[in-house]
Amino acid sequence: MEAVASYEPFARKDVDRAAAFLVGFLVEPLDGASSRKLMALRTDIDDFHLNGREMYWLSGLKQGESTFSNAKFEKLLGVRSTFRGLNTIRRMAARYPSRPGP
């Protein structure tokens, strides 16, 4: 969780202007064709970045106002996912830090 919370897929100036910054957790990484389908949905308002099993979504609109949604994502690509706001992920990472192995 700490790695997801600290990952920076977008420029700071873009993050500062965004209304929503979410992370989608996928069961497995998207294949090449699915990645291209997702990236074809980029607009001036919504941007996406993939990193393994995480999909980062930066939006100039609040989540409920964007034309992109988790349901649209799942239907288009035929995958299951869950999205959480980056602030929520950061709070979880701070509350439940990784413990060193035995």
Q: Helix and strand string, N-terminal first?
A: HHEHEEHEH
CATH class: Alpha Beta
Major pleated sheet: 4 strands, antiparallel
Mean pLDDT: 93
Give the low-confidence spans.
none
Strand content: 15-25%
Helical proportion, percent range: 25-40%
**CATH architecture assignment:** 2-Layer Sandwich
Task: Supply the number of structural domains.
Answer: 1
**Whole-angstrom Rg:** 14 Å
CATH topology: Alpha-Beta Plaits
End-to-end Cα distance, whole Å, is 19 Å
Class based on secondary structure composition and strand pairing: alpha+beta
Helix count from the secondary structure assignment:
5
The beta-strand count equals 4
General form:
globular
The side-by-side strand order for the widest beta sheet comes to 2-3-1-4
Please specify the SSE layout and strand pairing:
Blueprint: H1 2-6, H2 12-17, E1 20-26, H3 32-39, E2 46-51, E3 54-59, H4 70-77, E4 81-85, H5 86-95
Antiparallel strand pairs: 1-3, 1-4, 2-3
3D architecture notes:
The structure is a single chain. The chain is of the alpha+beta class and 102 residues long. The chain has one domain (2-95): Alpha-Beta Plaits. The protein is built from 5 helices and 4 strands. It has a 4-stranded antiparallel sheet. The mean pLDDT is 93. The chain has helices spanning 2-6, 12-17, 32-39, 70-77, 86-95; strands spanning 20-26, 46-51, 54-59, 81-85.
Outline:
By secondary structure, this protein is of the alpha+beta class. 36% of the residues lie in helices and 24% in strands. The protein is globular, with a radius of gyration of 14 Å.
Structure keywords:
5 helices; 36% helix; alpha+beta; Alpha-Beta Plaits; 102 residues; globular; 24% strand; four-stranded antiparallel sheet
